[in-house]
# Entry
Amino acid sequence: MCCVTGVSGSGKSTLVHDVLYRNLLRQRGEVIEDEPGKVKAIEGGDKVGQVVMVDQSPLARTPRSTPAVYVGAFDQIRQLFADTEDAKTEGVTAGFFSFNSGDGRCERCWGNGFEKIEMQFLSDLYVTCPECEGKRYQPHALRLRLRGKNIHEVLSLTVEEAAEFFGALESRRAKAVVASMNMLVEAGLGYLRLGQPLNTLSGGEAQRLKLIGHLLDTQAWPRVTIQRVKPSSCSMSPPQGCISTTSPSCSSCCSGSLKKGTASW
# Structure
C-alpha cells in the first residue's frame, strides 16, 4: 500500500489522478477524456493488469441492485435456495429468485420492492410496492426456506448476521458467501443489509463497496487500485510507508485499514 497525504492544495489529486492515473490509462491504450498531467516518464506500467479509480460516485440509481448482488454473493444465495428439498420438489432453479427475470419476483414492481413516481420538476420518488410490501417476491417464492428463513428474510440480514447465518452451512457456496461477507465487515460495512438498495448508500459507503468488489475480482491482477480517502473518515493511526507531500505530521490523514494493492491520497 502506498499513501499520499498532505494539506488542501498541496497537489495530491494532481499527482495521483492527473499524472499517475491518466498516464497509466494512456499507456494501456485506453481512451481518456482529459489530458493527463505532464511527467517525464512512468515506469512499470506494462506490468499492471488493470488500473482502477475507486471514487464516491453512485453505484446505482435504482433500488434493484444491492450489496449482495454487487459482490456476487446473491448468485450463491439463490443457488443455495434452489438446492433445498422444497425447491427441488417444485422444480425451482436459481433463476427463479432473480430480480431481473425470475418467475418468483413481484409482478407489480418487477423485483424492485419499490415503485418510482416521476416528479416533473423534482427528483423521482420511490415508494414501497403495495403488492409485495417491499419484499420483492411473490408469496409462493417466500414459502421456500433456507435454515428457516425465506429469501426476503435472508436479504434483510445485515452483513455481519449473514456471515454467521451462512457460516453454519457446510457447502462450498455458503463458504463463498461468508468470504465476501467477511471482507465487507473488514471494510466497516457490516451494518449494511444484503438487500439494501445501492441508491441509498452514502458516497463513502459506495466507495468502500466498490473497493471490496475490485478486491474480490481476481481476474485482473496485478492491479493498481486508486482510492481517495477523506481525513474525516480515516483512522488516526498513521500507517507504515506513507508518502507525505508536506510533513510527517500529515501522515495521520491516511487510513491503515486498506487492503494491499491500494493507493490512497
Observations:
- The chain has nine helices and seven strands.
- The mean pLDDT is 83.
- The two ends are 11 Å apart (CA to CA).
- The first helix runs from residue 12 to 27.
